[in-house]
Design brief:
Layout (H helix, E strand, L loop, with lengths): L2 H11 L4 H9 L1 H25 L1 H4 L1 H15 L6
């Protein structure tokens, strides 16, 4: 994995740990597969968290949360 590819992973995440640098040097293919997996997992967990708290936070707050989630993930609503 090239340094610019690792920099892109860091830019998307907002941080870089030593494990990222070690794994980039040791097994670049793993890092390339790990990044999309983590992003998909976090995306799903965020939506699940929003769904779990709709009653205590109310419909309007839920709506705004889903709108923010969709904007961040690029998810398009059905038309």
């Amino acid at each position: 994995m090239k340094r610019d590819e690792l920099d892109e992973v860091t830019r998307r995440r907002g941080y870089e740990l030593e494990m990222h640098r070690i794994m980039a040097a040791a097994d670049a293919e793993w890092v390339e597969k790990y990044a999309p997996f983590i992003e998909a997992t976090y995306t799903g967990e965020i939506l699940e968290a929003l769904e779990a708290v709709i009653m205590p936070m109310g419909g309007l707050a839920f709506r705004r949360g889903v709108q923010a989630w969709a904007a961040e993930t690029g998810f398009q609503e059905m038309t």
